[in-house]
Design goal:
alpha/beta; 7-stranded mixed β-sheet; 10 helices; 15 strands; globular
Length: 335
């Protein structure tokens, strides 16, 4: 059974292992630096559907089916799936998975949802509540723009601090198998709000929570960045990553040499018009369930920290002039 270490860290006793994973992306993501890593892509980002929202649901189903196929399991083998997205009431998940015979737990953590789902899935396996559990999340550029900002037809000008919502979905399946990458420790993040109100500067809103979660974990475990092969954040982008360095270095912790950000990895900022980088639930989900797990398979990663970062805003809170709280969850993946 999981035990507590320090203030915020969970240590798993039965190591929940990754037995299957799947990733699916849109055209822009496939045109980026990680194109050869993804399992599936669509040339027009609609995945045969009539709306962007339906396309997002379709991506989730494809990601889960891909993960199941890789580990030779069926939907009937999964005891519970934790799923979420950015759409109102998480309809991307519920509509995408409604035809699958899997007990469903809808969750919301904004862009931190992938890691939030992983922690909950790991807890289910570690406690014995599930033999096999799964986590999946998604985002779609067009559905996110329509919900949070402006419809694409409006043609609004995006400031340089803005990020491009990734069109993609990623799914992970966990079990008690040995000899595979497993989740050793985890930490639920605290909500951190330093008063950022600019919805076009998500990196600035999320960086304080990323620093908070990381510093708490390092303190709880008495480790340093040098103990890990990589420290990977979800979607801070260029602005947020630079702020994270400042915030951690102010506390005497230097992570520049070990840090990678999914929002900077999935796109080429020099050739693709994404401004500060990528964002969205699908950003960390697709990079984790492709490149990161491939690095474990190649033996290049043996011990990493993976953190998905989220901005807890809504169209209503933005219109009412609220600030943007940030949240970051963390998993320590080892082999």
């Amino acid at each position: 059974m999981a035990t507590r270490i320090g203030k915020t860290t969970i240590c798993f006793s039965v190591k929940p292992s990754v037995i299957g994973y799947g990733s699916v992306v849109g055209k822009k993501e496939f045109d980026g630096p990680l194109s050869h890593e993804f399992d599936t892509h669509d040339s027009n980002s609609r995945f045969g559907e009539k709306s962007f929202e339906k396309a997002e649901s379709r991506m989730q189903k494809i990601a889960v089916e891909t993960a199941l196929r890789k580990c030779s399991k069926s939907e009937n083998d999964i005891d519970v799936i934790f799923a979420g997205d950015l759409l109102n009431q998480c309809v991307g998940s519920s509509f995408g998975l409604r035809g699958m015979n899997i007990p469903f737990a809808g969750i919301y953590g904004a862009c931190s949802t992938m890691t939030l789902g992983l922690i909950l899935a790991a807890l289910a396996v570690d406690s014995g509540a599930a033999k096999l559990s799964a986590a999946v999340t998604s985002s779609h550029f067009c559905s996110a723009e329509r919900q949070y900002r402006y419809p694409l037809e409006y043609g609004s000008v995006r400031p340089q601090s803005s990020q491009w919502t990734v069109t993609g979905a990623g799914a992970t399946i966990l079990s008690q198998s040995e000899g595979l990458p497993y989740i050793d420790k985890a930490a639920f993040g605290k909500i951190v709000d330093l008063g950022v109100k600019d919805a076009n500067n998500m990196g600035a809103a999320m960086a304080p929570s990323a620093a908070s979660t990381l510093l708490s974990f390092l303190n709880d475990t008495h480790t340093s960045p040098d103990d890990y092969d990589a420290i990977i954040t979800g979607d801070l982008g260029k602005v947020g990553s630079d702020l994270l360095y400042i915030l951690t270095e102010n506390r005497g912790i230097r992570i520049r040499e070990k840090h990678f950000d999914c929002g900077l990895m999935i796109f080429n900022r020099n050739t693709q018009d994404v401004h500060s980088g990528g964002s969205g639930c699908g950003c960390s989900a697709t990079v984790l369930n492709s490149y990161v797990f491939h690095m474990f398979e190649k033996g290049k990663y043996k011990n990493i920290l993976f953190m998905s970062t989220g901005a807890l805003l809504s169209p209503t809170s933005t219109m009412q002039g609220e600030s943007i709280p940030g949240i970051t969850h963390l998993v320590n993946i080892r082999i």
